[in-house]
Amino acid sequence: MTNPENPVPVTEPSIWDHFVSRLKFWSRDNVTVEIEDQEMLEPEPDSEERKTFPWLTVVALVLALIAQLTLEPSLNRTPWPGVVLYAGALGCLVVALIRKEWHLPAPKPDADGTLSMTVKTQYLLIGTVLAVFAFVLFGTGEFGFLNTSLWVLSLAFIFLAFREKKADRPFSFTTLWGQLKGGGWQIRITRWTLIVLAALAVILFFNYYRLDSVPPEMLSDQAEKLLDINDVLNGARPVYFPRNTGREVIHFYLTAAYMAVFNLDVSFLNLKAVAVFANLVTLLFIYLLGKEVGNKWVGLAAALFAGIAYWPLLFTRLALRIPYYPLFVAPVMYFMIRGLRRQNINDILLTGLFLGLGLHGYTPFRIVPIFVVIGILIYILHRPARGKRVQALFALILIAFVSLVVFIPLLRYWLANPQLFAYRAFSRLTGMEVGFQEAPVLIFLRNFWKASMMFFWNNGVIWAHSVPNRPALEVVSGALYFLGIAALLIRYIRKRNWMDLFLLVSIPMMMMPSILSLAYPNENPCLNRTAGAVVPVFVVIGLAFETILRSIRTHTSGKIGKILVTLIVLLLVTWSGANNYDLVFNQYYSLYKASSWNTTELGEMAELFIDTMGTPETTYVVGYPHWVDSRLVAINAGYTGYDFAILPENIPATAEIPGAKLFFVNVNDGENMQLLLETYPDGILTQVDSKVANKDFMTFFVPPTQGVTP
Questions:
Q1: 645-646 vs 661-666, strand pairing mode
Q2: What pLDDT score does 32 carry?
């Protein structure tokens, strides 16, 4: 059925729906799923409104694009031209709304029914008892067979206690085998299918292109990650990794499993591969969230722009825990909105599950439980919650309960090690390390403003996961985000739809881990602690993109409208893709290569030396301030877990060790070069020219006391 304000059917199956149906084919009488070919943004019937070209919409878009273009980094950059142009775009948008040229996709209606509060007491009791036993047994601080089994079983029983059973036929292996043999698997390739495949191709290109070389080098953070993963591969099973002030576990166990299953080396590339997979799963949930708050075109546009965006691509390719923030924010938002709208207890259970899992992913995710409470309050205060407020509070309690059970391993660790567990967050929020520079309220307000403006002006100065001092969004995404935020805000003021406010509030909430850096305000904004905002930001971008195209298609007739929409899609997507390509594969790559140390080159030389005449024990990196991480040299040489570092005072003692030796020395470390020559008069000192400017280094080779010579 078509909504007069939203010509795209809200219940039309998508390619993702088909994929999901394949996972549930045993529950259907007919496994054939045909994806209906719906004309993109099908226009409404002829009317006086349709005969008028949507000039205001187009002008608003053009002004927004020019405005964001003026805010791109340049000499003597000033925000005022952009402010004036954005004000003009806002004015055009307001008039377009009044003239009904522009209207966001109509929200899906809230269900008339109420949330089921039926509880199977026996299952709940069993699940609670098992959870208590698991909590006690996790006092070891490690995942063991017994405590993990009890923990998983407790979750299973709790789900059984609340889960609402569907009316589908029960699962039967006989039915399943008959369906597999029946040959009823049919997919009709449609225009929508081809568009989705094209979008997937573009997304996969941006995520996997030059994955081995962008970024080109590891930093000390990656050394910590790979050492933790190496510990897991060697039998360690901690519930929290204490190395480097503490880390949550999901990234390490997923990567270790990937390396173990496929018998892969502990390497930067394999670390990246798992992070990219996490990003792709995030994009799937961004699509689903966009479809939930809009329609399938909103979801596809949101996933496409997020899939090629410089911001998530950089923190994904850095291969730290950062991608696990949006990875779990996306399903929490999706299932929470869907659960409240449809009054579905199963969605509420899944909200709690993903909320709990997210707490095992990345420290900034700890803000999300607070957002969930705010989200429920937003729902309760709006009209759709009439007669359902008790059920909404029950949903909040259930989400909290399920997430607490999922959190049990970390909860037990937290109670045993409160300082280590809370150190990362509280070192930024409080004055435990340094005093506040001014009143915390003023710092908070300034941080809030800077974080809000990062999409248009400045995303921070951390070169490891950004191009410093530029907007977090490129020109096209930035312009669409502005129009989308403005349209959502205006619609909320006019219609008071709870989902609009939910989206609007979610963005600053997901940036709070950066905003709340009160002790270190210079760290705000940063693209890692704001990573959760990727999810709602790109859904807003998808809403704006779809609305612009639908407005143009609705107000133009026949083939002209189709051609015009197609040209605009190609122009905006190509422009955005070109901007992001330059940011990731040119600007970021060059900056990162110039800023990081060339441990790969040292590692390659170390590997050659060890393979020919030396050993890991006779390979050394002489310590020097602010130089290479000697652990990274060992990892690049293929010896994860080794540390080639040697302090200068220990160099003379190496003379007692027989065999060939290789010392890596900083090119400016003349004092230790002299010490090596005094210790080994027959040694050979060589300067190695690096492929990267200003990254040359010295090697000092000590021939073996017997046998081959260099």
A1: unpaired
A2: 35
User: Cβ contacts of residue 539 below 8 Å, gap of 6+?
Assistant: 286, 289, 290, 293, 294, 298, 302, 503
For 241-256, write each residue's pLDDT tens digit: 998 778 899 999 999 9
Q: Give the number of other Cβ atoms within 10 Å of residue 94's Cβ.
A: 16
How far apart CA 319 and CA 251 sit, in angstroms, is: 9
Q: Pairing between strand 619-622 and 645-646? A: parallel
Q: What sign for the dihedral angle of Cα 3, 6, 10, 12?
A: positive
3-state secondary structure 493-524: HHHCCHHHHHHHHHHHHHCHHHHCCCCCHHHC
Q: What is the mean pLDDT of the chain?
A: 91
255-278 tens-digit pLDDT:
999 999 999 999 999 999 999 999
Phi, psi of 632 (to 5 degrees): -70, -35
Please give the pLDDT value at position 31.
36
CA 336/CA 396 separation, integer angstroms: 10
In b/e form, how buried is each residue of 208-247, taking b as 16+ CB within 10 angstroms?
eeebeebbbbbbebbbbbbbbbbbbbeeeebbbbeeeebb
pLDDT at site 25? 35
Give which of 689, 310, 284 is closest to 478, Cα–Cα: 310
DSSP-derived letter for residue 701 is: E
Task: Say whether pLDDT at 178 is over 80.
Answer: no
Looking up tokens 């519930």 gives: 239
How many other CB atoms are found less than 10 A from the CB of residue 354? Answer: 27
